[in-house]
Specification:
By secondary structure, this protein is of the alpha/beta class. It has 33 helices and 20 strands. The protein has a five-stranded parallel β-sheet with strand order 2-1-3-4-5, with helices on both faces. A five-stranded parallel β-sheet has the order 7-6-8-9-10, sandwiched between helices. Strand 8, helix 9 and strand 9 form a beta-alpha-beta unit.
């Protein structure tokens, strides 16, 4: 947090100037409060101006943005200067306005006191603010008229800045990327450029974590050396909330003196505050140009370190870093605190082809843990693949729809067999060590050259990353199909699809691997990342089945040559259920389920993250007592926290992190009971919004029905649930399916009888018919999961 004297100095780096600030700060006027609001709707703007006029009749100096002389000036530069003289910034958030969110983020980044205000009678953007979530920590000054607002401002007094942060520098991953909810071509290209640049990065991916907390946003920006936001065109689904979050986070980053790049697909009217930071593109090829200008600024900032290290706030909680709940952002940290369970050992020993679990259950963490645990050496080849879902959408649309059912099955198996051979070849040929070792033995080098020749014959050489290589192959196949004309009676599909002699490539790969490798591992995650939860199509399953068939074929081929092969595919539970339903010879795949039902494993997950971050030793109880109260009411505090999760590590870490953030903001040395309860409120809102997003792609009427449970009792009869669903728009014919879905997602469970615990889907390994039977038998009621109760005020009356 900057001191008052620092605020009156022009910053050493400004994203607008791409260097030192060029403004004059000598005439900054000090005021008690600066009011920022949008021009529209005009009735709310008029109410705020009237309230400020009333405040001006009393003590102190008060101002609005309309008091500034903006003629001939850069608008945001004048707002920036005026903010620096304000004791409190009052920002109107009645509507979701991008300029206002950028300004709020900027004020927070400066370390100013910010008080959000809103007209509580105006509800147009209320749902969007719930989805945004980042301002929930503040609380709001609600008003309905000018007199109320003026009185509230007088009564509450000046605001208090947020607490200081521990400024952890992410030097290994210096760029922070706001990815957006859609895997557009622009996002795929942006990720490819970043990977190719070798400047590593962290992402906020709303498909994984729908809402970004204020503390996490501040922490991520503070530790970064550059921030990139990929803005979506206004016609894109989800663009409103994502672009609002991008404006807010980039506002923090500008105040924190970070290089900022805001990429925008297509042309649109940009908000005036940050339009000079936005780089629109019509063709995705332009992204590389924009990144070429941005990345050197990041490297320069890393080298120069404009700001010295901030003073570290005292206290254990301030130093504690629980890591990121998304494994993709914690690859390095996982090496320190990944917990190797019995299930992990089974997979590591090669006893599982499929690892299945709900979103957030730890599949990606196991992927990285497994990759690190496999013995390294010249004799072991590890092919770790994390494709993005975007290219599979293209595969369905551009290829599969042109084929008969029989051809689809053949093509998918052939596609994956070809792709796996190509990726093995790419892995071998892109390794300088592999080439050096091959050159030492003439026969090995001869085999290497045959592999290289076969690879080049198929025009596979590329510096693209994996998703773009996939896309290139899909586009090539689609083009070949278009050029082939009618193919229903063709028997040369492989040559049409892939070109050249596929068998030559396969033989060259098999020959080299047999000569040089004793063991091959294929690890594949993310295949189903863009598939809607419980909404995977028959084409999706066809793609998956083709992969599994091709993997089995590769295994047979290599093991016939005495090369040990292990293929592990990581899948969501709902996709596996769909696969089972559409597979005639189900049950032949060996699986490991990531169902977490042992509290001791959760305790170890937390303990390892804590001791990896701060200097604490001992078992879980010795560590936990230094962080949190022993009890919440009469319940053990950790069990209280664990009971409010859906049996997933991500949920537990999210809850604990929320409680820590509240405690730090309140200046507490350890989590207090009230901090834990406030953290639960924020966590519960996040869980509800995340579930709404997860459901709405496939069952939009049911996502709306969740809000119908507002204020209900904790336990409900089946008839009462049916009444809520009917009132929310669910058709009478769809009630049974709706109940099964709410049970599957864990929103509802079956109430325990007597001393028995409540049962939810994850306790029953997602055996939904068993839960339904318990309810239909008449002996059990339904119960709303504790994770959602605070958000919906369930059981509050």
């Amino acid at each position: 947090m900057a001191s008052s004297s620092d605020l009156l100095k022009p910053p050493a780096y400004c994203a607008y100037a791409a260097g030192p600030c060029d403004q004059d700060f000598s005439a900054i006027e000090k005021v008690e409060g600066l009011f920022l609001f949008a021009s529209k709707p005009p009735e709310i703007a008029a109410t705020i101006e009237a309230a400020v006029d009333e405040l001006k009749t009393g003590e102190g100096a008060w101002a609005t943005w309309r008091d500034m002389d903006l003629v001939g000036q850069m608008v945001f530069c004048e707002i920036c200067k005026r903010m620096r003289g304000a004791a409190t910034v009052y920002a109107d958030v009645t509507t979701l306005n991008f300029n206002l969110l950028f300004e709020i983020g900027f004020a927070i980044g400066l370390g100013l006191a910010v008080r959000p205000i809103r007209d509580s009678s105006f509800i147009r953007d209320r749902r969007a603010f719930d989805a945004l979530g980042v301002l929930d920590t503040f609380g709001y000054l609600d008003f309905r008229n000018a007199g109320e607002l003026a009185n509230f401002v007088r009564a509450t007094g000046a605001g208090r800045p947020l607490g200081p942060l521990v400024r952890r520098e992410y030097r290994e991953t210096p760029v922070y990327l706001l990815k957006g909810p859609l895997d557009t071509d622009g996002v795929v290209k942006l990720l490819s450029v970043l990977k190719k640049s070798r400047v590593r990065f962290r992402t906020h991916d709303p498909s994984e974590i729908p809402r970004l907390s204020l503390h996490k946003a501040r922490e991520q920006v503070a530790g970064s050396f550059g921030v990139v936001a990929h803005l979506l065109g206004p016609e894109r689904d989800g663009s409103h909330v994502h672009n609002a979050l991008s404006a807010f986070v980039c506002g923090i980053a500008v105040a924190e003196e970070k290089p900022v790049l805001m990429l925008r697909e297509g042309e649109a009217t940009e908000p005036i505050d940050y339009r000079d930071l936005v780089q629109p593109y019509a063709a995705v090829s332009a992204i590389e140009h924009h990144m070429a200008e941005f990345l050197p600024q990041v490297v320069d900032r890393m080298q120069q370190a404009v700001r010295g290290p901030a003073a570290r706030p005292e206290g254990l909680l301030s130093e504690l870093d629980m890591g990121d709940v998304a494994a993709e952002n914690e690859i390095g940290g996982l090496r320190d605190y990944f917990v190797r369970t019995g299930r992990f050992d089974q997979v590591r020993k090669g006893h599982a082809q499929l690892v299945i679990g709900r979103k957030g259950a730890g599949k990606s963490a196991m992927f990285y843990g497994l990759r690190d645990a496999i013995s390294r050496g010249r004799e072991v080849l590890i092919l770790d693949m994390k494709p993005e879902g975007h290219q599979f959408t293209r595969l369905r649309e551009a290829v599969l729809k042109e084929l008969t059912v029989g051809q689809q099955e053949y093509v998918m198996a052939a596609f994956w067999a070809y792709l796996l051979s190509a990726e093995v070849a790419h892995k071998l040929l892109s390794s300088q060590r592999e080439r050096r070792d091959a050159e030492r033995d003439p026969k090995t080098f001869e085999s290497y050259r045959r592999l290289e020749a076969a690879y080049r014959a198929h025009d596979l050489e590329s510096t693209d990353d994996l998703p773009q290589r996939f896309l290139r192959q899909v586009d090539r196949i689609a083009s070949r199909l278009r050029d082939a004309g009618k193919i229903s009676d063709r028997d040369d599909l492989a040559e049409i699809l892939f070109g050249g002699d596929v068998s030559t490539l396969n033989a060259a790969v098999a020959e080299y691997v047999t000569r040089e490798k004793d063991e091959v591992w294929l690890l594949l995650d993310n295949l189903d990342k863009s598939w809607a939860t419980r909404g995977s199509t028959e084409e999706d399953i066809l793609i998956l089945r083709g992969l599994l068939d091709a993997t089995a074929q590769l295994q047979r081929s290599l093991e016939a040559r005495d090369v040990v092969f292990h293929g592990v595919v990581f899948l969501r539970t709902d996709v596996y259920e769909r696969l089972q339903g559409l597979t005639p010879d189900r049950g032949k795949d060996s699986i490991t389920r990531l169902d977490w039902d042992d509290p001791e494993v959760f305790r170890e997950i937390v303990r390892r993250r804590v001791v990896a971050s701060v200097e604490l030793t001992g078992g879980f109880d010795a560590v936990w007592v230094q962080l949190a109260p022993p009890l919440v009411g009469v319940e053990d505090s950790f069990q209280y926290t664990l009971d409010r999760t859906l049996g997933r590590p991500r949920d537990l870490l999210q809850f604990i992190s929320a409680a820590i953030q509240v405690a730090v903001d309140r200046g507490h040395e350890k989590i207090e009971v009230d901090d834990l309860l406030q953290g639960e409120r924020e966590y519960s809102e996040d869980m509800l919004i995340a579930l709404v997003y997860e459901i709405e792609d496939t069952h939009p009427e049911l996502s709306e029905a969740l809000y119908g449970f507002q204020g209900v009792t904790t336990t409900l009869t089946k008839a009462e649930v049916a009444e809520i669903l009917l009132a929310s728009g669910v058709a009478a014919t769809g009630l049974d399916e709706a109940l099964e879905l709410l049970l599957w997602y864990g929103f509802l469970g079956v109430a325990g009888a007597g001393e028995a615990a409540d049962q939810f889907a994850y306790n029953m390994r997602y055996n939904i018919p068993r839960l339904v039977h318990l309810v239909d038998s008449g002996g059990h009621s339904l119960v709303v999961h504790p994770a959602f109760r605070m958000a919906l005020a369930v059981g509050s009356t």
